User: Fold these one by one.
Assistant:
Number 1:
Amino acid sequence: MRARRALLYTPGDDLRKITKAAALGVDCLCMDIEDGVALNHKAEARQTIITALQTLDFGRTERLVRINAAGSGFEAVDVETVLFAGAQICPDGVVLPKAETAEQVQWVSAQIAAAEEHFGWPAGEIALIIQIETALGLVNIRQVLTADPRLQAVIFGAEDLAATMGATRTSTGWEVFYARSAVVAHAAAFDLQAIDMVNVDFHDLVGLEAEALQGAQMGFEGKQIIHPNQIEPVQRAFTPGDAEIAHARRVMDAYQLHQQAGRGAFALDGKMVDLPIVKAAARVLARAAAAGKT
Ligand code: COA
Ligand code: MG
């Protein structure tokens, strides 16, 4: 699966920001029609996103569009406008915020499938990514994450979740820790990428990097960001370092030798290595390869 170490939001009605973001080499750029866009700018955002898809060179950056939530009253027009603009105008993926039921996920997937069929695009190629960021979405997470095979990743939204739970956001994040853990565990259970919460304090890059590393340690594969300055620290936090990669290679090599000799567990550098540690090393190498480090 492609690397989604940093997912940068840009308001869909701001062509200047989209143009800037497209040139920054970020893994994913998410052009927003939802909460980053004022109610009276939704139509402008849809049209601006079409212009951007039509005219800008995004390089290797994934082009995502975040539509409005199911039931908002905007979602059908969002999908119709952005996915049916023309055979040459096709985002790489759609982000559904505030996902709460399997039916909502299936509805978006069916709309994408209809556009693929209509324009003769390869079936199943446009990604679907959903956000778990409401109390109902969290308690329904299993049905939401298993709703449709088009689903590739799940994003944890801390700010909206806190709002729906009546929680107050703190710098430690303990108030959303259960939900953050639940999202990453469910993503792993159903073989999806997990993308961590936003850090809205875009001047605190030290705090951001610590939070990103914590997310990586929990098993998240990437993090949502809102400002260009956040790209570098976040992509670095989700890229295995040289020492980590070298160690993972040594674990894999030693594992092969010990397997051949009939030993499941062995010692390396004074520490026990058995199958879970070998699996973790294999994941490090897969993440390094996805990030272009081989
Ligand atoms: N995407 C692309 N460019 C961005 C950007 C973003 N998300 N955020 C800031 N920039 C650009 C600015 O346009 C500015 O460009 P310039 O130097 O060419 O004028 C530069 O980066 C520096 O920006 P800065 O002055 O530090 O911030 P700001 O006050 O312009 O913007 C925000 C602050 C929070 C409004 C802005 O970062 C933003 O729009 N973030 C995304 C919000 C969003 O989409 N929210 C919904 C999802 S959570
Ligand atoms: Mg949200």
Number 2:
Amino acid sequence: MRPFTYSRAEDEGAAAEAAAGGATFIAGGTNLLDLMKLEVMTPEALVDINRLDLNTISQTEDGGLRIGALVTNSDCAADPRVRADYAVLAKAILAGASGQLRNKATTGGNLCQRTRCYYFYDTAMACNKREPGSGCGAIGGVNRLHAILGASDQCIATYPGDMAVALAALDADVEIRSSDGSEKTVPVTEFHRLPGDMPEKDNILESGDLITAVTLPPKPGGTHVYRKVRDRSSYAFALVSVAAIARMDAGKISDIRLAFGGIAHKPWRDPAVEDILKGEAPSDALFEKAADILLKDAEGQGSNDFKIPLARRTLTAVLRQATGSGAS
Ligand code: SF4
């Protein structure tokens, strides 16, 4: 590990000032410390933001929830309001990592976790995300975990998290404070980016930007499902995951929101998949049509070709479960 300086910020202004000077924020450190030990990330200065007043969950004026950026994953998943009204979020969080990691990992940090591409973590290998212009070891290499949608010829990595997949289905927003003190709010579906020709940039954060909270709209109702398919039953990243919130009315799907993990560089949401389902009576034929739409541009990279049929089967099983239309 390279030498670095460490300081604690007592308020958001001090944190922003430190970040404007080039410091990297640290909160739970559950991904950053690993990356520093491997010298994949080599910040010269860390500013600890754990003392900022960002660790509460509160009701918003419109009846939604505001989850502070420093609320731990464990506390978020255990909150009675989250469990009752946003069950897909609690389920997704509890599907990720381990109890010990969830006790340290924070809401803001979880959004910023980096890909688990093997080549990204191995500094001896080519990786455009770690070192722009060096190439991509995963293209033509070992790519079992990699993307089937939205990849580029520069990078085929996937976003590894679970929490953000549920947040995408919930239409959550991310609140961000910039180093100049200005504030902005972006939909979580626009927070992460596709790799394009800048795979080094995972999300829309600019230097010095601090995530302050995630806000959830009023409770969506309906049936909440989060299904994660992985190599082990715990402590493993998603090969494919699906978050679903479905509302039924008179035997038809009155509303449905679907988000997918493990298949792209960002939590994947495709309105066309939802549109074909809305207003229709659930059936296997309908669910297969939805999968056709989801996967029409899917492309395997060799070792991950299996993800295309796996995503189809996972989606159709989740749709059966969420709409109450048969065994899943
Ligand atoms: Fe790096 Fe992306 Fe290629 Fe992995 S897929 S080696 S993260 S450029």
Number 3:
Amino acid sequence: MIVVMNSGANKIQIDNVLTRLENLGFKIHLSEGVERTIIGAIGDKSILNEVALEAMPGVEKVVPILQPYKLVSREFKSRDSVVKVDNLEFGGKKIHIMAGPCAVESREQLMESAEAVARAGATILRGGAFKPRTSPYAFQGLEEEGLQMLAEAREKTGLKIVTEVVDPRNVELVAKYADILQIGARNMQNFFLLKEVSIANKPVLLKRGPSATIEEWLMAAEYVMSGGNYNVILCERGVRTFETYLRNTLDLSAVPVAKHLSHLPVIVDPSHAVGKWQFVKPMALAAVAAGADGLIIEVHPNPAQALCDGPQSLTPEHFEELMNDIRKMAETMEREL
Ligand code: PEP
Ligand code: MN
């Protein structure tokens, strides 16, 4: 539930409400605005009647949150959240493009990719050092050596780094190098991993599971937020349907729906959605038109030689063309690139 305090409520009144709620076992999330203080309280609301919170001095009203996800919901926070990645802001006017190879394969491959995507206007470099692969015989990633290369690419280009963490035991290690911790689609409901990133001091990019409903996806975000990490960026990357021509079916309606139900920023991964580079551009542009706050796109200097996801990777030339088109679409949508 949300306890809205009067605009004139004083500190003692606010502290009294907080103490009352805490003594009853509620978990508190405080939002101190310029106008008024709003207290989010998560716990057993069946005891609410006994508490008679609305009668306490300084309380304007008590509003229950009807959705199963609480901190994530628009009911909890009506205004869009802006997630900060150092000096970059997700969820504001600017659209951010994350781009780079599926996997970090070598220093040369990564540096070439990083320089190309930075030149074209991306602000974040993507690249997996731990790769969740369908086959145990496929390339599994360079692990810490890959993370070090990502950090080196950041030094050289100024790009921020997003990279996937697949194991709760590696969260600390990945957080040491990354600016954003990526939770992959296959791990969206790995609740131990979600709990671990909820106590990491880094923003989280939470991909939607291939078979997850929007509600399950938002519940996964609730795990991260309820642990204390409010910096969550949602990512739609296609879901599994009866259609087999493409790798997945991009559920673009999930963008406005997630933004309607939640205050969190939402980005789109057209690369993993379509699986074929020819279709990345139309879906990237459509995602911006649908209101996405950013995109994550695979780019490889030589897609034919890629160790992972070559068929869906754009060449640096195609990526540059795409960025020019995204710029125009962003302008149409009154956004900035
Ligand atoms: C990725 O971004 O490299 C990746 C593995 O994506 P997903 O988790 O969406 O399949
Ligand atoms: Mn990939």
